[in-house]
Amino acid sequence: MEVTLKQMRIGDSGVVVGIGSKGPMKRRLMEMGVTPGADLKVVKVAPLGDPIEVTLRGYELSLRKNEAEQIKVKLD
Amino acid sequence: MSMTIALAGNPNSGKTTLFNALTGSRQHVGNWPGVTVEQKKGKYRKDKSIEVIDLPGIYSLSPYTQEEVVARDYIIKEAPSVVINIVDATNFERNLYLTLQLLETKIPTVIALNMMDEVEASGTKIDIPKLEKDLGVKIVPIVARSSQGIQELMETVKDIGGRNLASIPLDVFDGKIKNAIEEIKALGIDDWRAVKLLEGDEILMKTLNEEEKGKVEAIIAKTDAVVGGDCEAAIADARYQTIGKIVSKSVNKKGGAKRVETLSDKIDKVVTNRILAIPIFLLVIYLIFKFTFSEGLPGVWLQTIVVDFWDGTLVPAVIGFLENAGAAGWALSLVGDGILAGIGGVISFLPQILILFLLLSILEDSGYMARVAFVMDRLFRKFGLSGKSFIPLLMGFGCSVPALMASRTLENDKERRLTMMITPFMSCGAKVPIYLMFAAALFPASNQDIIMYSIYMLGIVVAIICGIILSKTMFKGNVSNFIMELPQYRIPTLRSILIHGWEKVKGFAVRAGTIILASTILIWFLANFNFSGMCEMEDSILASIGNAIKFIFTPLGFGDWRAAVGVVTGWIAKENIVATFGVLFGAGDEIVEAAMEGSDVIPGLTDVFTKVSAYSYMAFNLLCMPCFAAVGAIKREMGTWGWTLKTVAFQMIVAYIVALLINTIGNLIF
After folding, report:
1. Most A CBs within 10 Å: which of B482, B485, B488, as the mutation test of the A interface?
2. Domain span including residue A53
3. For A48, nearest residue in chain B (alpha carbons)
4. Tens digits of per-residue pLDDT, B32-80?
């Protein structure tokens, strides 16, 4: 099932399928390793509800929900 | 053998630790020209003919942030002899993304594989010879924090540099991308630029003429269609695929692909916990401020020692010496009240700044600051800032100078400048005596706490409103992203903390100090002289200036020459306002000291100020241009006089408007 990272719950994991937007955000996400085939797992949400933390390529990445919305993931 | 070495690597890879290990304290910190990015240069301790330059931490060589532009420009244009690419061995894949791009520039490269102690501890096995073969680069394992492997690293660097061994880019791309690259190269463009252009590099695009640009854009469009989307993504993808293969062959993680819970994870369970995160953070900040600013604790203790020595021993000795040598009255005053008082002002808050910086360095180097930004981000987005602005703003409650320097950690240029413009609105420690003085003189004892609290809130509210306004006007289009790594917690090395803290203090002392000294002497002159020579402050040039400009302040409720003079002397150090009033209202030293603590009243003050105009005056001094030391810091961090003047003008206008509102509305109500 394909969802956006924003829709995933804490504990969910999946594989990155692609990134929606074009431009600096996409480039930045790709540099940080968010590319097709990368495994990721949602670890936590910040106390105020945003941003979120995911484990990806062996490290912890935090990003805002509006950034997460651009990332398409195939759930495990 | 003389050479220049550049250190390139991801943030949090231990680059600065390595830089410190290589250069010791032989560092020079400044800014890259024209930008707000910090530049660090030094000389290798064991061989001073080797210059080491610490490039900003970057994730790639695409021109997305100022840091990336600065780093890549340096590598391509300045062509250092060797680039040491620091790779965090506990975080291979993402680190190698930069490595692959460095190899594409063909510059001689050596990889310093850092954090090997953590790798060993985790049971992960790394096959270094295999990696060297797959990457085509010499790899030296190191532990930067304990300086292990440094010797071997430098031997390898000298060897590679001596032989000027160019790097070989890896064969990463598939046929379609390769074709596109060849097509671009046919236009007379070199390898590296061809790849970058295909990635959509805006800066390189601008270097092409119209014809070339058109052709390249056509090639990109064609390739986009052929790769089924977007060549930029295809290129990044290709790199990570190659990285994935290399890493799976050489790195054997214990426990396989499954992620093991680390100590950092456990700490984060508490520190970013839904309920505990903010209280814990408030506690940490409270402890830091207490440690720095409270009686009986290191900050104040150190300060007392330094100030006592300065005022009690050094100044009397110098003055005594000059008196015996027969120096004239004005010379004694110049040296005593001007120069020594000016330097003394700077020296008196150096100890506290040092302590504050050391503590904040610990927070930053340990990785905790990233968590703070993570927790606070949502709140700050509403004011046009991000969570990362929180720390600099918070520091402003202690002193603007280190706060402004702390804004360097913000990645986004616009965000940095915006944060700096509103940082001085956070009421600093030096402004407190002003409030206490007025509170004691004009407000009943029961209201004094409310007055103090309300001034702080005023600063915060004004900062928030200005943040919102600026982010929609001057800094419009600030689409910064939050995307940020949360690094593993690490205990910073003592050496790092000391170097980190000391370098900040040195920066402040030299730059801000010069400005303070110059302005103190200037104001001393204006306050002690008129056109007939030395005189009392009431008859001085400064007093004339005060009289001349007092009309500006009439709508604000304090159109008195003494108030005007106070504002001006406040620009040397905000607490000077109390001392100035002491002189101008004829109060003795003891009364002035007591007034600074709010336990006595300066006579005559209530004749000039009313409750409303006093509050307006406090607000004006809170918001107007900060002390010269802070202005010096603004200049240093903003980079140009243009921005500095814009900032000062902005603050003056805000101060005027707010004071005007307070005075007008206040008089209607009270």
Report:
1. B482
2. 2-75
3. B378
4. 776 667 788 999 999 989 999 999 989 999 887 778 889 999 999 999 9
Q: How much of chain B, in percent, has pLDDT values that exceed 90?
A: 29
> pLDDT class for A35, splitting at 50, 70, 90?
very high
Instruction: Of B436, B414, B418, give the one whose Cα is nearest residue B427.
Output: B436
**Contact between B93 and A57 using a beta-carbon 8 Å cutoff:** yes
Ordered by start, the domain boundaries in chain B are 3-163, 175-252
Which ranges constitute the DSSP H helices of B443-486?
448-472
Tell me whether 0.85 is exceeded by the ipTM.
yes
Instruction: Tell which residue, B195, B181, B170, has the closest CA to residue B61.
Output: B195
What are the tens digits of pLDDT across the range B649-667?
A: 999 999 999 999 999 998 8
| CATH architecture under which domain B3-163 falls | 3-Layer(aba) Sandwich (3.40)
- What pLDDT, in 10s, does the model give residues B310-326? 888 888 888 888 888 88
Q: Which of B259, B379, B484 sits opposite A62 (nearest CB)?
A: B484
Task: Label residue A39 exposed, middle or buried (CB < 10 Å: 0-12, 13-18, 19+).
Answer: middle
Element holding B276 (H helix, E strand): none
CATH number, domain with residue A69: 2.30.30.90
Helix, strand or coil for residue B546?
A: helix
Test B272 with A35 for CB contact under 8 angstroms.
Answer: no
Rounded to two decimals, the pTM is 0.82
Question: CB B375 to CB A47 under 8 A?
Answer: yes
- Region B92-120: mean pLDDT is 94
User: Is A72 strand, coil or helix?
Assistant: strand
Confirm or reject contact between A42 and chain B (CB < 8 A). Answer: no
- Structural domain total, chain A: 1
**CATH number of B175-252: 2.40.50.140, 3.10.580.10, 1.10.287.1770, 3.80.10.10?**
1.10.287.1770
Cis status, amide bond into A51, omega within 30 of 0: yes
Name all contacts of B642-647 with Cβ < 8 Å and 24+ positions apart. B643/B417, B647/B420, B647/B421
pLDDT tens track for B551-593: 999 999 888 888 998 898 888 888 788 878 877 887 776 777 7
Indicate the burial class of B493 (C-beta count within 10 angstroms; 0-12, 13-18, 19 or more). middle
Residue type, B182: E
